[in-house]
Each structure stands twice: as C-alpha cells, then as structure tokens.
Amino acid sequence: MLLEGRSIASGTVVNTDVCVIGAGAAGITIALSLANTAINVVVLESGGLDPSGEGQDQVKGEVVGLPYYPLESTRLRCFGGSTMHWGGWSRPFEPIDFEQRPWVPHSGWPITRATLDPYYLEAQELCQLGHFDYAPAGWDLGSAVPLPLAGDAVATKLIQFSPPTRFGVRYRARIEAARNVSVYLNSTTTDMQLVANGAAIDGLDVHTSAGNSFRVVARSYILAAGGIDNPRLLLSWNRVHKQGIGNAHDLVGRFFGEHIQLDTAGVFPTSDDVSFDLYQTSSRVTVRKHKSGSGRGANVMGYLTLSDSLQRARRTLNYSCDVLESSVSDYFLHADRAETTADSTLGNIGEGLRTLWHNLSDAANVGFGTGSSKRFYKIVTTQEQAPNPSSRVTLAEQRDAFGLRRPRLDWRLNDLDRHTIGVALDALASAFGGASLAKLRAIQDFAVDPWPKHMVGSWHHCGTTRMHDDPKQGVVDANCRVHGIDNLYVAGSSVFTTTGNGNPTLTVVALALRLAEHIKKLRTAA
Prior knowledge:
This protein is an alpha/beta fold and about 525 residues long.
C-alpha cells in the first residue's frame, strides 16, 4: 500500500523486516520481488507520486571538475525515480566487463556475467524487453542490416528499447495490492543509528516537509537512493563513524563513473548505397519475433563495439559508439548538445568555430554535397570509464531543507579513457576503409587536446559504493552488503565495480533481483 508520510503521527515507530530507502528501479524491483511473501517490507520515498519542486530541490548539488549537467536535471525524486525520465535504452554488461583486466587498474567484480544471467532474464520482463539476445544474427532485421565491416576488430551489437517502462506507473498497482509492502511517500531518511559497537543499523529517523517525524526499525536495510545519494547519505550519517558509514577505507563516493557522450569523428560514405539504417535512433527497427521462435519481439538499434581480442591486445576499456546521420551545425558546431553549465554557451560556440576552421574541407564537402555521397554521419563515442578514485562524490557545505549536506560531484577522466578513444578510432577507420564503406576524420587529437566542451555525460551515476570482496577495495561485498555493517545493503548502479559500455538500468534491475533473493534466503534461514 501507499502511505502519505506527512500524515504519520510524530513519534511513531514502524517495525518491519526490510526497509528500502528509495523507490526507483532498484527499490521497486526489490519490493516487487519480496511482495506477497512472509517478509514485511517498508519503502521510504522522499518524493511523491510525481516530481515536484519540493522533491527536486533535494537533489540539487555542487559540480566541480569536468563540466556536468546540474544534478537536479539528472535525477528525479519521486515514486519510480529516474525511470520516470528514462529513455529505455537497454543492454546487458559483457562478460569481459566483470573480469579482472591487468591493464585496467581497479577492475574485477567479485561476480561473473554468468552469475547475473538468470536475473537478466527476469529483468528483461520487468523492463518490457524482447528475447534476451543482443546479437544481430538472432533477429530478422529486414533491410536494416549490419555494416559489412572489414576484419574482426569491430562488431555490431544491438540495443533493445524499453517502451520505456515507468516503474512508478507500471508497478504501482502491484505494490499497492501487496499485503506485506508499505511505501511511505514524501518521507526523507535523515539519520541512521547504529548499535553501540557500530557494527549494525539500529533504526532510521524519517522527516517530512510537514514537520512531523517518525522512526523505522528493521532487521535489514537497503539503501537504493541512486549513485549520487547513496554515497551522500553514507557520508552524512557520521555520528558513530566520523568518516561515515562503510567508509573505513575512504572509498565511499570514490570511483564515480559515467558514460561520456562525445562526437569523435566524421564519417564520409563512399557512396549513397551504403546503408546506415540500423544505427539511427530516429528509425528504430521493430522486430516482431526472434528467429528462435521464442520470446517477444523488440525495438532495436545497432551500435559498434570493439572485440574482446582487440581490447586485450591494445589494452583498452570496453568501447561502443553510435553512427548517426548528421549535418554541419550538428557535427562541427555541436548544436544538438545541451549546455552542461550555465556559462558554457560562448565556450561551446568558440570551440565549434575553431573545429570548423580546422576542418574546412570536410565542412565544405558536407555543406555543399561535393563529396562522393550526399549524406554525412558522425561517430558518437559512449565508452566505459576507467575506474578512477579521484573521480568522486563528496559533501558540499550547503545543506538542504532537512539539514543534510548536499552532494559535490568531481567528475574526472584519465589517460586510459583517452587511449581507448584513439585505439577505437584507428580500428573504426580500418573497419570502414578496408571494406570501402567510408572514410573517417577525427576533429581533434584526443590523446593531447583538452576534453572538448561539447562532451557530456549520460546521467549514468555509477561506482560510488563499488562492489569488491576486499574491504580495502570496495564498499560492499558480492551480496551488496556494506563491509563492517551486518544488516546494511546497497542497491543500484553505485555498486558497479566497473561501468561497462552499456546503459545501466537493465543491470541495476538484475542486481536488485539478486539482492532480493539473498534477503529471502536470510529471512528463511532466520
């Protein structure tokens, strides 16, 4: 059932088996998995049923380091969380993403892709996706065929598109009908008390904008507030552990990872006969049935990625890119890029004009159609970010309406990120050129030039409470339990050890299903 937290009498103590903080993709998935069992569940959501000015004020924060969107633009504080503005892009992480790669410092999950596969299957259903197959060969794509690239260094894989699933809308009725699940709306967790020795959580303080407060006492607590607020809350709750909960080794908030969105090269087709239809966001391919005959159809789009063998040989991160139809204003002036900071407009224009000046011949070919093809495309990089302890979320001095310090994001990239782009562009140029499909032209030297102002993130906040079996290298263990705290767990993309090159929501849901199963086993054993 759904309850209004502002109507709860002050001083009330709510007792339950499991308390989930946050009702986004992870929190709602856990509640659904535990629904109609013998386990009583309380979900605390600091927003209402819809985003509001009051709720969105709570997600504001400070941005330093690389330019980034205002934090309140990237997150929604409401029932359904950020799924309420999710674009639906879905793909699983690759097996290599979970491996300990010697050339990628701090890589290596304590679980494998095979561990998550059963949960990916269920996550496909919750996200309203098709058959669990992301290879083009399994689908009848009609005339939207993969590019016949030269060699095996670059391959086409598929993204599937959720409708998108608005978890707060699609699953509201199921949550309301669950006899053992109670969701408290407009209820902000302001403090977490620990037992005397600091090894377990003893209860939560909850406040609302109406001025009332109540307490929740549970056997197990799951923090599912997102990649920015999960570390923010752990750092804020510091009355017993002065450095914050789970932060004995100064890891909470570190390793913030994103997927950059970066125009990296122009694609000049050799002729108009080359088809890029599969790779266009504006013309997603609807496939009604998988070739196996099983599973639902899907809306799909192609993207290009580096083979595992090339990643190992050239010591790169996992890389992917879109090949999108473009124009002079889009590619050279980046007219499609939203501003990342309030003062970025003049900088973006100046940078675009400099790019245009240094690429006059290409710009003329595009603008006047003097090349071998009248069409023009661009490579948009979306790659894995190197795990970077200097890229982090800390606490700002400014406080919100409940007295909690706001988050401070310092997003940083490193040389491995640059190296990966360079290797990828070389591989893409060979794959296109070797098949006489197109020539590529990079607009800058990414190995030495500053990161361009038109580079943006993807609103994918990962890695800030990373998973690792060694407490000195991660905040949570393989079961998402916070090291050193017996009954506290974390859910969501903040537990990602590495970011992969794929969109995070499907993996967030799969991990949440796995965590819910772990909680069921704990309660059964008890």
